[in-house]
Amino acid sequence: MESIIGWIIPILGVPASWHLLKWVDEKSGVVIFLAGFAASLALVIALVFIAVLSNSLCISPLHACENHGDANMSYWFNSCYFFPVYLLFAIVGKQESINTTDDQSN
Fold first, then answer.
1. HSE-up of 36 (CA within 13 Å, CB side)?
2. Residue 44 pLDDT exceeds 90
3. pLDDT of residue 43
4. Helix (H, G, I), strand (E, B) or coil at 65
5. What torsion, rounded to 10 degrees, do the Cα atoms 81, 87, 92, 98 define?
6. How far apart are CA 16 and CA 86, in angstroms?
């Protein structure tokens, strides 16, 4: 069960990352990249906290997971591994919204 929780949470972050930069009102590639980097890093940190909380709930109240001591830490790295994916999806999602806006204004 730990591995399922450990992978579901980062995977759910992928569609969320698509919308990370919708609030950025800038078309500069550098600004979009830096905002995407910061927003993706914030998403990773948030998902790490969610993964830690989920694993703790799975162990204690639900008794569906076992406590493996320090080996339990491995599940939260999955969100860190997904950082480049979040960054890519954030930038591509922003570029899509720019292209859509430009098409509508023409």
1. 24
2. yes
3. 96
4. coil
5. 160
6. 8
When comparing pLDDT for 70 and 83, which is higher?
83
The fraction of the chain above a pLDDT of 90, given in percent, is 42
Straight-line distance from the first to the last Cα atom of the chain, in angstroms, rounded to the nearest whole number = 51
Separation between Cα atoms, residue 22 and residue 9, nearest integer Å:
22
Distance CA 90, CA 33 (A): 9
Task: Count the residues in the chain.
Answer: 106
Using the predicted structure, report yes or no on whether residue 40 has a pLDDT greater than 90.
yes
On average, the pLDDT of the chain sits at 85
Number of C-beta neighbours around residue 43 at 10 A = 23
Asked whether the beta carbons of 90 and 42 are under 8 A apart, the reply is: no
Q: Which two tokens stand for residue 30?
A: 């550098």
pTM to 2 decimals? 0.84
Report how far residue 84's alpha carbon sits from residue 106's, in angstroms, rounded to the nearest whole number: 33
Taking the C-alpha atoms of residue 80 and residue 100, their distance in angstroms, rounded to an integer, is 31
